[in-house]
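Q: What would this chain look like folded?
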Amino acid sequence: MNELPAFRITENGQAVFNWQELDRRWNDRLFFAILLESTIAVPLARRAAVWRRESGLRGQVFPAERLHISLIGIGDYDGLPEELVKIARHVASMVQAKPFEVSFDRLSAFGGGALVLRGSDASRRCKRSGAILPP
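A: My prediction, written as structure tokens:
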């Protein structure tokens, strides 16, 4: 990985860094995310199973403890690079944020048929979360 990463926004609005060719399939994905509280994740996982069935999608429904809000992708790999994971964990440990509310008003399919809750343009205009990275 001697080249600089390319930052881009995918067709579905996801922000990612890319080092590899886009059409290759990888085994592991590294990204920053916010895990959902169980009081939200458990009923959402139940509802996701209903949405999946109603939509005729075949992707798996993740267990409640894996439901998350994706923030930014770092990359896809064949085996996670230990040094990059170490750096990502260090960077994540520096993030400070106050609790904030978020809402999603759209349901869409992502990738191989996964269900994804998304916000409309109106919900993107919500206030920033107050996340602060130290200087």
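The first strand starts at residue 6 and ends at 9.
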